[in-house]
Amino acid sequence: IQALLRSSSSSMNYLFLVLQTTILATVTCGLIDFYRVPGCQTAFWAPAILLAGLARSFLRASTVTDYSERLPSFVSSLSAGPVPEDRMYLAQYIFYSQAGFYVFGAKLTSGILLKSFYILAMALFGLATKVMSEP
Q1: Burial of 62 (0-12, 13-18, 19+ CB in 10 A)
Q2: Residue 114 in contact with residue 120, Cβ under 8 Å?
Q3: pTM recorded for the entire structure
Q4: What is the 3-state secondary structure (H, E, C) of the chain?
């Protein structure tokens, strides 16, 4: 499973870079248009739906890593009673393989993704206040 996740995530590195750039550009241009162009408020929903879909795809990719991190404890707890050696070795193998979804060598987890969404929201809030304060 580790080799499959690594090969698929390495082939999609640039796709995720393009998607992140698309999110940033869409939100930035949408905020500027929303404030400066009169009558543009009704056209704001199409990019919002696009952004929700892109954010959902990032969240789905991060849940693969989250499930992979919880898998060793699930394997260890499959039956009550003492843990056989084979299952213990399997759980250790899964744990040390560090399976997950990687983007440019960094493990994509839900925590990192939510932190990046928070930073993006803070930057966009700063941009929005700057755009609204200009005459």
Answers
A1: buried
A2: no
A3: 0.66
A4: CHHHHHHHHHHCHHHHHHHHHHHHHHHHHHHHHHHHCCCCHHHHHHHHHHHHHHHHHHHHHHHHHHHHHHHHHHHHCCCCCCCCHHHHHHHHHHHHHCCCCEECCEECCHHHHHHHHHHHHHHHHHHHHHHHHCC
Say how far residue 49 (Cα) sits from the centre of its chain.
Answer: 17
Q: How far apart, in whole angstroms, are the C-alpha atoms of residue 117 and residue 115?
A: 5
Q: Distance between CA atoms of 68 and 30, rounded to whole angstroms? A: 36
Q: How many CB atoms lie within 10 A of CB 65?
A: 23
CB 110 within 8 A of CB 58: no
pLDDT digit string, tens, across residues 17-44: 888 788 778 877 777 777 777 766 666 6
Give me the residue label for tokens 């009558």: 39
Structure tokens at 86: 């084979």
